């Protein structure tokens, strides 16, 4: 949710890193973001769960990768 919210507002996601147990927004705002970005017009709860699970795995792996660390790559992979 935090990544999607910042993406919609045009923030630079390269410098954002999720902090465990940090809370932003409310459940209604979170659900609205998920519905907006999941890519299915009328998703079931199962489809939303799969979307959030997949997105969380991808973002966790991205944050853990040295190749996605802006301090390491500097500006050599801008836009990657």
UniProtKB/TrEMBL annotation:
BP terms from Gene Ontology: negative regulation of non-canonical Wnt signaling pathway; sprouting angiogenesis; ubiquitin-dependent protein catabolic process
InterPro entries: RNF213 (IPR031248)
Molecular function terms, GO-annotated: ATP hydrolysis activity; ligase activity; ubiquitin-protein transferase activity
One GO cellular component term: membrane
Keywords of the record: Ligase
Residues forming coiled coils: none
The protein's name: RN213 ligase
Species annotation: Syrrhaptes paradoxus (Pallas's sandgrouse)
Gene name for this UniProt entry: Rnf213_2
